[in-house]
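job 3f2a | input accepted
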Amino acid sequence: MRILQLCHKIPYPCRDGSALAMHQITESFLKLGWKVKVLALETPKQRRDSFEIPEAYCLNTSFESHFVNTDIKPLDALIALISGNSYNVQRFYDPKLAQRLKDILLAEQFDAIHLEGLYLMPYCETIRKYSSAKLVMRAHNLEHQIWERLSETEPCIGKKLYFRHLAQALKRYEVQVMVQCDGLLAITSQISDFFRHQGFAGLVDTLPVAAIAESTPNIASFANRVVFHIGAMDWKPNQEGIQWFLTKVWPIVMQQDSTIRLHLAGRNIMSWSDKLKAENLTIDGEVPDAAAYAAGKPVMVVPLLSGSGMRVKIIEGLAWGKTIVTTSVGAEGTGCEHNKHLFACDSPQEMANRIVACFQDTEYSISVANHGHAFVMQNYQAEALTLVLGNFYKKLLMHSM
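job 3f2a | predicted structure (401 res):
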């Protein structure tokens, strides 16, 4: 089978959860013995010259990347606001990339074209015009839901109204554009259900992100009284969540136990260092190896108030044997149960109490970490998910025979 995989950012090396999700799809295609070509967007946040892309990866995937300027332009945003269109989506369309896509489709035959996310759907017109391949979208999030939730927590009335407009425009686009697809691979069952309920008639399946986990969890010592968070600070829900955590949650933790320390890491976090001030806080910047960074730190916090889809870092944290303290939004889509696989706390007081309790009742904390690790081992194994992907595409192509 021949697949063209179109990615909204450079997927490898993996610097965040969405990149990991895309790269795992590429790896699965290759494990199935299929031929895959990866065509990726470069954006101002992620230029190709900032990556050390292995030559073997480029050869195995016939890798290409093309720059698209996704920076926000106020005039274009205003025009989209007046017209009711989705500016979030418009920013990812570039005529030069559409021309390159046309050239590829005229030069090569593909059985299927796999689009990584909603923001690549503007290229459907080019794909449909120059290819008869099956068209599949991988839904990483319900994009409108992110902005709906951001609008709910935004105190500024102007921003609140604008975020609400973005959410409404995105929801209309999500529903309307899916008729162009033959299939949908959703990262969570909630996303699958949304599109089914909206009337999508194509083939639908759920394909989460796989976890790379040792058979025995590596539980860090709770004598090391460290709480940590790792996440990209160029993603608005992470910015919102960390600011909420530092201003609302962490002061309560410090009142109850000032021996606990907090470490923050992630892409672009140093540009936020002036805004991230708190007692017992260390900002470690962007780290090359997330698993190595997490080693020795027993408690991982994911204070997410908005967002959608699945938090890949939670799956990774469970695989690393961490005790996870998050919110119900953070736990959403993972299938994890509160107090069994992780802790989901939505109020500042509840989250602060739980963090302190993690170091007081270490036996219970370790038990939850072990259950979380076992859950990941049972439900997020790469081999099983590769079979799901293979069966989905085989079934999709059988429908056209």
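job 3f2a | The chain has two domains: 2-210+381-398, 226-379.
job 3f2a | closed
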